[in-house]
């Protein structure tokens, strides 16, 4: 009780100002410069990439991040994603409205895109046969009406791992649904996808935060939404969980360098959400919103400062137009 | 037998009334003090001993008087303790739940306020106060869609509250629902035409691409409240956007009369000077702005960045 009282007093001292637009000098200039920047055509300002990391169900938090960016009018020129981030990224790049994206993310079930029903599970256990991830392909196909990479509203890339060579394979053209399926193809559970002479499994194994894919699409400034796991208190209770935890941890460890390559990171605190805790997908989305909302002003400022050369061009006297 | 019992009861009743006060209500005294805004006296009257003697149906009301009296005398910690004890005793009392939730929310302790507001709604789904509390909490968190929904329900009852219409408009602006935002802020302006609402209207008009109207709304806000330096500086920046460089310069100059080192005003002046080809003057202004980091961190950072780029071009 005493602690709560102390917290009450502390909170009163630092409680946020009344709910009005931020009219501080910093906020006014940020808003002004950001509007200037957004008004420029993509060729005149740096190309901005949005990257969605892998992270299974945790990656539904990307939808929350995307919604905050969209409400703020944050420019997103290219999109890249891995695994569940590839699904969310493909839908976003395909122009799926945020409201619908939110509904899709909230409605994700254990069996969504996985054919994971009782029969397939029995077959998996008894027949020692990997499951098919064909439903992921069908899902993307259905949501985006059979779009190919070239048809998407924003350029998009996703990553899968080649089991033959161990390479990260970046897809950015051709059959979209198949590429997304390959990117979200958990090894050890789903059969690898054979495509273009490759034997493909989940990209999270080799490219957890696909900054390189966004750069390949021409992004000069990259904002990455990262939904890593926190396994501090996680004790896998079956073969599935154990295998997936190992794969996930390996992917996360590989992402340390990728984090440094991003120009800005948003990390929704979803680490404790289990890979298949579908009941918590709304919570994951909300945590994405919260994290993005908190960091939005800072992301805007970083992008503005990165773009100062572009902004500067508008600051000088305009050359007189010669009349014929 | 029955007669004698009735007689005994008849005799006993006035005695009870005499003991508890003129109306037979033990809370009549504290209530009268509360209504006369004698809050310190309410607190003095509602001692633990007094509360112990109250029947359950009066005890909840007594806790409410006590909690509110603590609040209005500034003893928020005591108010909090009072409501917490009361809510444990009366977990379904809407008034006590609402007061506790509102106090926690107003103190920024939203994580604790939110489940209480939700508990109120589980008892009374249309409770406007709880909807308002949740609308404000969701808004602080950036959950705009849910915030707007709660505001809408609250406003069905609190129809004449201009600040709530304004807050609702701000949520709609943030979620880019500009048409509804403009309707909401117009309602706020009808109820109370103040500078805050005019500034909000200006922001909505600007995002809608009607910069001239937005500047006119800012002018109106400044006429209503000339002390609004923030609105004056916003006008300076927006004049730059509208390429009204002379007006931008006037806005900056007006600010210099009050505060010659205002970082943002220096930035505005520098932008005008650059456009006029007076680079040296612009550099001077940017140097001043770059020194103002303690007052405006980002303005100073942006000024430093621009300064270094301009100096490199020289």
Features of this protein?
heterodimer; A: about 325 residues; alpha/beta; eight-stranded mixed β-sheet; 12 helices; globular; B: about 325 residues; mainly alpha; about 80% helix; about 0% strand
Description of the molecule:
The complex is a heterodimer of chains A (324) and B (314). With 324 residues, chain A is of the alpha/beta class. Chain A is 45% helix and 11% strand. Chain A has twelve helices and eight strands. In chain A, strands 1, 2, 3, 4, 5, 6, 7 and 8 form an eight-stranded mixed sheet that branches. In chain A, α2 crosses α11 and α3 packs antiparallel against α5. In chain B, α7 runs parallel beside α9, α13 packs antiparallel against α14 and α15 runs antiparallel to α16. About 6% of the residues of chain B have low confidence. With 314 residues, chain B is mainly alpha-helical. At the A-B interface, α1, α2, α11 and α12 of A face α6, α9, α11, α13 and α15 of B.
- Class per helix and strand makeup of chain A: alpha/beta
Question: Average pLDDT across residues of chain B?
Answer: 91
Indicate the overall shape of chain B. elongated
Number of strands of chain A: 8
Spell out the helices and strands of chain B N to C. Answer: HHHHHHHHHHHHHHHHHHH
Oligomer: heterodimer
Gyration radius of chain B, to the nearest Å? 29 Å
Distance, first to last CA of chain A: 81 Å
Report how far apart the termini of chain B are.
113 Å
User: What is the H-and-E element order of chain A?
Assistant: HHEHEHHHHEEHEEHEHEHH
What Rg of chain A do the Cα atoms give?
A: 22 Å
- What is the average of the pLDDT values of chain A? 85
Main beta-sheet annotation of chain A: 8 strands, mixed
What is the count of helical runs of chain A? 12
Q: Into which percentage range does the β-strand content of chain B fall?
A: under 5%
Main sheet overview of chain B: none
Task: Determine the number of helices of chain B (DSSP H or I, runs of at least 4 residues).
Answer: 19
- How much helicity do the residues of chain A have? 40-55%
Q: What structural category do the secondary elements of chain B indicate?
A: mainly alpha
Identify the overall geometry of chain A: globular
Greatest interface: A-B, 44 and 58 residues
